[in-house]
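Morning. Coffee machine broken again, so started the prediction first thing and wrote up yesterday's gels while waiting. Chain of 108 residues, entered below exactly as on the submission form.
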Amino acid sequence: MVYVQPYALYEATRRLASEKKIVDISLLRGSDAEEVVKKVVDKLREEGMLGNYVKEGYRGRVYEIRATKFRRKMLLVPVKIEAFGLPSKVIKRRKPGYLGMIEDVIPW
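Came back before lunch.
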């Protein structure tokens, strides 16, 4: 499972639309970010790529991140790792840093 912050999902959607030369007013107005994320989450659910625990109509779920040096609650979107390609290749692309300290991600 890959846990994505809703704003990062919004920004990735904006970048992809720009690369594909897609114009959508909701991607140009920051005030529409929540609605864009909800649409993306709904599409992920429809495609079977959304993880469990996200209720219909929601843009994510609160998780507790447990790491060696901290614990934090965050709103995240759980996406099945297969949505990004082969799991082994996705893990290799992971950037070092605080992600390596994470021990567990638990629905809260």
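The chain is about 35% helix and 25% strand. Going to sketch it on the whiteboard this afternoon.
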